[in-house]
Amino acid sequence: MGTSVVHAGARVGEGTTLGEYVVIEDGARIGKNCEIGHHVVIRRDTVVGDGVRIDDMCILGKWPLRAPNSILPPTGALPPTVIGDGCLLGAMATVYRGATLGNKVLVADQASVREKVTIGEFTIVGRGVVVENECTVGRYVKLETECYITAYSVIEDRVFVAPQVTTTNDNFVGRTEERKKHFKGVTIRRGGRVGAGSVILPGRVIGADAQVAAGSVVSRDVPDETMVMGVPARVIRKVKEEQLLKNQGWPE
User: Fold this and answer.
1) Mean pLDDT (the chain, rounded)
2) CATH number at residue 232
3) What is the helix (H) or strand (E) element at residue 235, kind and residue range?
4) pLDDT in tens, 230-242
């Protein structure tokens, strides 16, 4: 049997089980009745709520890397990673230091949640999804397999982002010093939906209950309750009344 290492300054709640070769660093606090798989690493000061499942080779509280020639500002001090009650963290998922997950969030296998990210309760972060730094993701959001949420984005409640959607934040595509003044992620308002394989250009806003058809390139803001389609995306029609959030009977 492999040996797990729990630092003397860490706290593990009653009923929590550890797999083989688990490492829990100083100051980490693990709640009650959690299930921690094999080869999991929980970095210093990380806070994990009650009833959390953490699958094999997951890393919580990872400190971000910054390349010597990165144009982003230094990370500086970051608060501990916080994982809410009842969360599910898949195999090889990584949640960076400074990220906060609300209660009952699912982060699936091989997904990555970067520093200074907040994710609201009951949200699903699908397999292989990347949520980059300094993003806000709301409640009851679905980020489907391998979609990419670029840094400095805002995703509001009840948003649906289909597989392999790409969001962007740099209109200068890595050239000229001017670009450093204009980094801006995307905003998807409450109930917005984005179809598979779509691309959303920097700074674009997808309105509340708007819909982007699969394979579209969004180069302009999308009005509320409007469907767009194409390359570049153009308005096709209003979203059907029966598809609006207000007609779903879902809790706020």
Assistant:
1) 94
2) 2.160.10.10
3) strand 234-238
4) 999 999 999 999 9
